[in-house]
Design goal:
By secondary structure, this protein is an alpha+beta fold. It has one domain (about 10-210). Helices cover about 45% and strands about 15% of the residues. Strands 1-5-6-4-2 form a five-stranded mixed beta sheet, covered by helices on one side. α2 (about 60-75) crosses α3, α3 (about 125-145) packs across α4 (about 150-170) and α4 crosses α6. The longest helix is centred in the last third of the chain and has 27 residues, at about 185-210. The radius of gyration is 16 Å and the shape is globular.
C-alpha cells in the first residue's frame, strides 16, 4: 500500500493549467485560531450563499473556513487545537497548450511545529472552495491526531469521506454523486472509507483513522 512520503499532506487536483502551489513561507497569510470559533454546527450561512459565485477575498475565505471547521468539530468531533496560517494564491490562469493533461493543486496543508499552513487558490467558486476547505481541514485534524506515516489510502479516503458528509448535509447532490463515483485514486480511497464506516459505524471509522498506519 502507498505511504505518505512528504510533509505535504494532501493533493487536491482539477484539470486546468496553472502553476503548482509552492512551499510559500513568504506568501501573504492570516492566522486562524479554531479554538476561538463559537461552537455551533450552523451551516445556515453556507446554505444561503450562491455556490456558483467566486471567492476572492480573505474575509470570505476565512468565513468558509470558520463555518466548515465548526461543523467538523460539532458534528464529527474533529477538533483542531493549533493556530493555522491561511494563505491565498493568485487566481489560476487557463492555458490552452496543456490543459488536457495538467493537474494544478487547488489546496494544500503543510504541517509545522506550531500548527501549519493551509494554502488555497483564489478564484474558486464557493462550491469548489467548500470542498477544498473540508478536504484540507481534515488533513489539519489528521496532522494533530493521526500517525505521520499513515497509509495514503486511509489518509485521503478519510478526507474524501468528510467532504462527502458535508456535501450531503448541504444537499449538493451533483457534487456528492461525482465524489462517490470518481474512478481515480481519490474515488478508490473514498470507497474504502465508506466501506469501513458501513462495517464499523461512524465512530469506528474515526477511531480507526486515529491509529492506523
Amino acid at each position: 500500500m502507498r505511504k505518505v512520503l512528504t510533509i505535504l499532506l494532501s493533493i487536491w487536483t482539477l484539470a486546468v493549467t496553472a502553476e503548482p502551489i509552492p512551499e510559500g513561507s513568504d506568501l501573504p497569510s492570516f492566522g486562524f485560531d479554531p479554538t476561538s470559533v463559537t461552537r455551533e454546527a450552523d451551516l445556515g450561512p453556507l446554505r444561503e450563499m450562491n455556490f456558483e459565485e467566486t471567492v476572492l477575498s480573505e474575509t470570505e475565505t476565512l468565513r468558509i473556513v470558520r463555518i466548515v471547521s465548526r461543523w467538523m468539530d460539532d458534528c464529527l468531533g474533529l477538533s483542531v487545537r493549533n493556530r493555522i496560517d491561511i494563505r491565498l494564491l493568485p487566481i489560476m490562469e487557463p492555458s490552452g497548450a496543456s490543459k488536457e493533461t495538467s493537474s494544478p493543486t487547488l489546496g494544500a496543508f503543510e504541517k509545522s511545529s506550531t500548527g501549519g499552513a493551509l494554502t488555497i487558490r483564489r478564484g474558486l467558486s464557493r462550491r469548489r472552495m467548500i470542498q477544498v476547505v473540508a478536504h484540507e481541514w481534515t488533513h489539519v485534524w489528521q496532522a494533530e491526531n493521526c500517525p505521520s506515516d499513515q497509509d495514503l489510502l486511509i489518509h485521503e479516503g478519510f478526507a474524501q469521506w468528510v467532504t462527502e458528509n458535508l456535501l450531503e448535509t448541504l444537499g449538493l447532490m451533483e457534487d456528492l454523486n461525482a465524489l462517490r463515483t470518481r474512478e481515480d485514486f481519490y474515488g478508490e480511497a473514498y470507497r474504502w472509507a465508506a466501506e469501513c464506516e458501513k462495517a464499523n459505524g461512524r465512530e469506528g471509522l474515526i477511531e480507526y483513522v486515529r491509529k492506523a498506519r
